[in-house]
Every structure is written in structure tokens, then in C-alpha cells.
Amino acid sequence: MNNVRDENMKRINNQELANQFIDEQIKALKAQIGDNKVLLALSGGVDSSVVAALLIKAIGKNLTCVHVNHGLLRKGESESVIKVFREELGANLIYVDASDRFLDALAGVEDPEEKRKIIGKIFIDVFAEEARKLDDIKFLGQGTIYPDILESKGIKAHHNVGGLPPELNFELVEPVKLLYKDEVRQVGLALGLPRSMVFRQPFPGPGLGVRCPGAITRDRLALVRESDAILREEFNKCGLDQKVWQFFTIVPPFKSTGIKDNKRTFEYAVVIRAVNSVDATAAEVEEIPYDILFKIRDRILKEVNGVNRVLVDISPKPVATIEWE
Ligand code: XMP
């Protein structure tokens, strides 16, 4: 398969076209892979999930998925990958909890780009270590999609395991590389993946690490994770999750004064950010109704221990970026 989309290729925008694509891909994957084995880094994102589901249909147990938990995932995310792929789809899935390794290496590192580099490097190291433990792997599955090829911006650099050491020179299997994101989602639905996975909002590779600005600490990371889970739960309840493109919380590295049970507190603040965008190059802020904001505020202040203030970020991109770092 070359890297250019045929002008005659129909946009996959319904179940029938998605099923047709799946049938063709399964044939093509069987022909390309034969009886060989494929390795796939499964982050739980839409693209790698769809590739995994396609490969499971095409080659079953000859696919080995590796899910690396870098300790910067959202609440429940690894559990859902394990549930869907190992328990429901019967995939060969290796789960690696490398949280301590990532968080130890990140301790004290303040520079955002340095943080990204460390996360990217350890990800490759962990994945390569797992790959070396396996015999006879010939192919590497990747969730490259068409915009990645068109833009080649490298934003997904550490999702795509392109920087593997030279002795692990696998051939690539990239079944969705000519598809746009909406088409990948159609295919995901047709493959029977859960809607929550198929319509997952964009989530950066460095995960909650960029929402814990400055040096990541375990305590602040826990606050980001818990407050993010509350925000997601409340957005799901009122349907805003269907409308808003990306929403999350940030916990900046400073404390402020509060009062609780007649005692002075000195604790962190949670920032809520909810934006709409088409392709992330520009973004407008969602106007969250105050009654919903107050509900989220109340839950965060009550349920997340160590937080005494809730703020809302109303900055558009530009001038701000979507993430805080
Ligand atoms: P910014 O913050 O630059 O983000 O406005 C634009 C979009 O990209 C996501 N993002 C990343 N995704 N690795 C990723 O895979 C990264 O390092 C990264 N940084 C930002 C961000 O969540 C938003 O959707």
C-alpha cells in the first residue's frame, strides 16, 4: 500500500463502507502477514485500538499487544484496555505497569520538552524490552492515520514506536494509514469497539504529565487524575462530553490559602479547561453553564483531598495553547 490516498476512494461514512473496508483489510493483512507474528503498542487511543481490533480479526493470537502504563494515564484507562482487548476480544495482551520507572525519571524535571523527551525515551525502552522477550516477531503494527502522513508533524512521535533500536527492525503494518480520523471511528464502530473508546477525546501521548505543569509529583498527579475523573463523569451525565472537543483539569505547582472546619488550609488549585476545535490548530472555549460548573466545583472540593480552590481557564488558542505545557 502506498502513502497516497486514491482520489476515487470513497469517504467511509457509513456502516456498509466500514464493513467493506474491514473485509478488504482482513484479506490484505492475511496476505501481508501470513503465519508471521505482529507486535503492537496499544495505548487505548482510537487509532491503535482500531488497528488492534482489525489485527485480532485477521490473525488472532499471532498478534501480541503491549500496553505500557506510564503512570500518566487517566483513571480507569488501563483497566478498560485490559477489559476490552484481553477479556472481550481475547487478545494476547501484555500489560506493563512502568509507572514507577517513568515517575522516578521525571522527578524534579521542570522543562516541558525535557519531560516529553524522557517519557518518549522510556516508552521506547520499555517497549523494546518487551519486544526482545518475544520470539519470531516479524511485523510491527502501527496506528498511523492519513493526517499523520500529510502533516508528518511528529506530534505522535512517542505513540508511534518509530525510534526502536536498529536490531528490532520490524516491517510495518499500518492498516488505517489512508484513513481520516472520522473514518477510523466508523471502522471502530463497525468492529464493535465501545463508543467510549471510539469517540474518545484527544489525549496527549505524555498524558496527565502535561497537566501537572512543572516537576511532576505523585501527589499533584493524583489530584489531576481524580479531578479529571470527576469532570468527565459530570460531562457525561449532562451530555457535554458529546459536544465539547476536549476537556480536562490541570493542577499548577503552587498552593493558596483556604479555610476548612475553621482551620486555615494551604493547598493546590484545580483548573478546568474545556475547548472546541476542529484540528487543534485553533480552539475556542466552551461556555460551561454555571450550574454544571458549580456541581463540578462542589464535587472536586469535597472529594479530592488536598484541593481548596477551583478555577476555569477561559483562554482561547491562540493566544494560549490547549494544554498548559
Ligand atoms: P496544544 O497544547 O499544542 O495541543 O494546543 C494541540 C493538541 O495536541 C495535543 N497534544 C499532544 N499530543 N503529544 C500528543 O500526542 C504531545 O506531546 C501533545 N501536546 C499536545 C493536545 O492535547 C491537543 O489536542
Report the C-alpha radius of gyration, rounded: 21 Å
Bound molecules: xanthosine-5'-monophosphate
Percent range of helical residues: 40-55%
Low-confidence regions: 154-159
Specify the structural class.
Answer: alpha/beta
* DSSP summary: helix tally: 11
Largest sheet: 5 strands, parallel
Integer average pLDDT: 95
Strand order of the biggest β-sheet? 3-2-1-4-5
Topology as a string of helices (H) and strands (E): HEHEHEHHEHEHHHHEEEEHE
Number of strand segments: 10
Shape: globular
Beta-strand level of the residues, as a percent range? 15-25%
Instruction: Measure the end-to-end span.
Output: 37 Å
Provide a brief overview of the structure:
By secondary structure, the chain is an alpha/beta fold. Helices cover 41% and strands 18% of the residues. The protein starts with 14 loop residues before the first helix and ends in a 13-residue tail after the last strand.
Task: Walk me through the topology.
Layout (H helix, E strand, L loop, with lengths): L14 H19 L3 E5 L4 H14 L3 E7 L7 H12 L3 E6 L1 H8 L5 H22 L3 E5 L4 H6 L19 E3 L7 H10 L4 H4 L19 H21 L1 H4 L2 E5 L4 E6 L2 E14 L7 E2 L4 H14 L3 E6 L13
Helix pairs in contact: 1-2, 1-7, 2-7, 4-5, 9-11
The structure holds xanthosine-5'-monophosphate.
Explain what you see.
With 325 residues, this protein is an alpha/beta fold. The chain is 41% helix and 18% strand. It has a 5-stranded parallel sheet with strand order 3-2-1-4-5, with helices on both faces. Strand 2 (63-69), helix 3 (77-88) and strand 3 (92-97) form a beta-alpha-beta unit. Helix 4 (99-106) packs antiparallel against helix 5 (112-133) and helix 9 runs antiparallel to helix 11 (290-303). The chain is globular. The two termini are 37 Å apart. Mean pLDDT is 95; it is low at 154-159. Bound molecules: xanthosine-5'-monophosphate (XMP). The site of xanthosine-5'-monophosphate has 14 residues, from loops.
